[in-house]
Amino acid sequence: MKLERIATALVWLITAAAALAVAGCSAPAPTPSLILATTTSAQDSGLLEVLVPAFRERSSIDVKVVAVGTGQALELGRRGDADVLLVHSPAAEQRFVDEGFGVGRRQVMWNDFVLVGPPTDPAGVNDSSSAVEAFTRVARAAAPFVSRGDESGTHLKEKEVWRQAGVEPRGDWYVAAGAGMGQVLRMAGEKRAYALTDRGTYLAQRQGLDLAVLYEGDPVLKNVYSVIQVNPEKHPHVRREAAEKFADYLTGPEGRKVIADFGKDRFGQPLFFVPDAVSDPVTGRKKD
Questions:
Q1: Is the pLDDT of residue 287 over 50?
Q2: How far apart are the first and last CA of the chain?
Q3: What pLDDT score was predicted for residue 29?
Q4: Which of 6, 67, 189, 192 is 20–30 Å from 236 (CA)?
Q5: What is the mean pLDDT of the chain?
Q6: Which string of b and e fits 113-138 if b means at least 16 CB within 10 Å?
Q7: Regarding beta strands 222-230 and 84-87, do their DSSP bridges make them parallel or antiparallel, or are they unpaired?
Q8: Handedness of CA 139, 113, 286, 98 (dihedral sign)
Q9: Taking 90 as the threshold, does the pLDDT of residue 139 lie above it?
Q10: What local confidence, expressed as pLDDT, does residue 28 receive?
Q11: Rounded Cα–Cα distance for residues 221 and 150 (Å)
Q12: Which residues of 49-68 are buried (b: 16+ CB within 10 A; e: fewer)?
């Protein structure tokens, strides 16, 4: 009887071990994922709410979105805390690549910056001949102006125009919010202030805002977005393959169609435009 009990126990142990082994072999593999550091304008415009699920369905790769200013997104890339970036400050992007932190930089889309403000336009910027003149008029009138103040692509563009105007904005009229685009627009509406914004976010959030587009059209206000993969030679842990697939999707036929169609149904116009296939991948200039 004792030998029989021992044999029975051995059979039970072998069966249990086999079951565990089978269970271990059949456990689902972890879902591939990546971290996307991007601008708040890409998030606040609503584009990522459409683009990311479409990519996930196509690739089965989960995307964790970290929406910050372009400066912060590039810093996340420098630290290896993101796998891929979608940003919109060409000069800062080029430094990031030149320093060896980014690879595969490609233009994804563009729209433009516009100067918005109270419909009454107290600074009289509406008939300005250039962005520099529009900003100069705001400063001369000491009209309230809400700045991103966060080293984002929008803030860097704003600072560029102030420099060209020879103005160092300071005083009670100038508010550095240190906030994302959507929040800045809400603040500007509440304060009856001017603000520089990308057109996409303004169109997506204009309902309920007492703001109008008061100046637009200067070539200096073109707003180009690029995708950059974080260099795996700097940070070997980054998800190189997933990041490359995401970049390929954004610049490929499927991603381009999602971007080009976004906004048409709701606003009667696209919020972003994709570059021509015959253009330079970063500058957008026609190739020879």
A1: no
A2: 91
A3: 53
A4: 67
A5: 88
A6: bbbbbbeebbbebeebebbbebbbbb
A7: antiparallel
A8: positive
A9: yes
A10: 52
A11: 18
A12: eebbeebeeebebebeeebb
Alpha-carbon span 101 to 22, nearest angstrom: 43
Residue type (1 letter), 40: T
**What is the DSSP code (8-state) at residue 279?**
B
Residue 237: what are its φ and ψ, rounded to 5°?
A: -80, -10
Kindly report the number of other CB atoms within 10 A of residue 156's CB atom: 19
State both tokens at 184.
């800045």
Prediction pTM value: 0.80
pLDDT tens, position by position, 91-100 = 999 999 999 9
Q: Could you list the beta-strand ranges (E) of 7-91.
A: 33-39, 62-68, 84-87
Helix runs in 27-69, H state only: 40-44, 47-59
> 227 is written with which tokens?
């995708």
